[in-house]
Amino acid sequence: MSDPSPPPPTSLKILLAEDNVVNQRVTQLILAKLGHELDIVSDGAAAVEAVQQRTYSVVLMDVEMPRLDGLEATRRIRAYFADRDRPYIVAMTASAQRADCMAAGMDDFLLKPVRTADLAGMVERALAAAATWRHQQQFQME
Question: Is residue 141 pLDDT above 80, yes or no?
Fold first, then answer.
């Protein structure tokens, strides 16, 4: 008997929360090359608003941003989604501690400057996490 769940998407809808214009552009070029759609916001408060208005598979979250830092933005996104389908949140930072990012609710961690291989690996991990989540949801419904 075949699995009734649809195959995972090969193109992801990604939100980048990053205040540095150069980092925005580099990430945008890499993700476009990998075939993913990207929206960009420049602070954590805008990231929280964006995920409440549109569905994203992944949120790439800079940790140090104006108005609302990435750690607090992540906490708010997690609180908003509770147990519902939520985006895979990835810390993007040059200096923050990994443990602090994971404690805030982030799923993954990338060091800046990011490279194509780093982003490609993150996409694979995000797809695997989504497949696991779908499998768990299906199992709970049976």
Answer: no
